[in-house]
Design goal:
188 residues
């Protein structure tokens, strides 16, 4: 949660809102904002290096903590206040589904950071891990480009986020399962 607060302070200080026309897209600003997400990966690595335990537990704990911090900082208050209202609105159901997609995304990103830091990972898999980490960091930019270029609606956008996250998670899981089982249970 501390890294989320620091990230928000950095974004507010160094990347203020730009003068973009309504309905426009500031690609440079969004790219720089997504670049700050690399600090999250460093924070995840720092957290996992401090957790004593098995490898599976490390990335699960780090991913769950990261997803919980994001949920509390970005979605908890709107869900709590808005969903308790008298009128029902589908945006709260979409926000709940998006939180579940984000949970899978954060766990798979934590798994990729854990895989990247392993010394026994095959050297041919390192570029794939790095590419998936980069895609995960720049996912909000890719989503914004899809919204403006293709004109995705809210449900279509949610489905595309879910498909993207599922693809990254499946590739991450396959690389994780490729590590021999006796090494998966070893300490970091």
């Amino acid at each position: 949660m501390f890294t989320q607060l620091v990230k928000m302070l950095i974004l507010a200080t160094f990347f203020p809102a730009s003068e973009v026309p309504i309905g426009g897209l500031d690609v440079t600003g969004e790219f720089l904002k997504c670049t700050v997400d690399l600090a999250d990966l460093v924070g995840i690595h720092f957290v996992m290096s401090r957790i004593a335990g098995k490898g599976q537990l490390k990335f699960m704990i780090a991913g769950m903590g990261w997803a919980t911090a994001e949920l509390v900082m970005t979605r908890f208050l709107p869900l709590w206040v808005g969903a308790r209202g008298v009128e029902f609105d589908w945006k709260y159901v979409q926000m709940s589904f998006d939180s579940n997609v984000s949970l899978i995304h954060h766990i798979s990103m934590a798994m990729l950071v854990w895989l990247y830091c392993r010394s026994d990972l095959q050297k041919s898999l390192v570029p794939i891990v790095m590419a998936l980490l980069a895609l995960g960091c720049y996912r909000p930019l890719i989503v914004e480009i899809l919204i403006h270029a293709v004109g995705f609606g809210s449900w279509t956008l949610l489905i595309s986020k879910a498909v993207f996250t599922a693809c990254v998670a499946m590739v991450s899981l396959q690389m994780y399962l490729g590590i021999p089982s006796q090494l998966q249970n070893s300490f970091y």
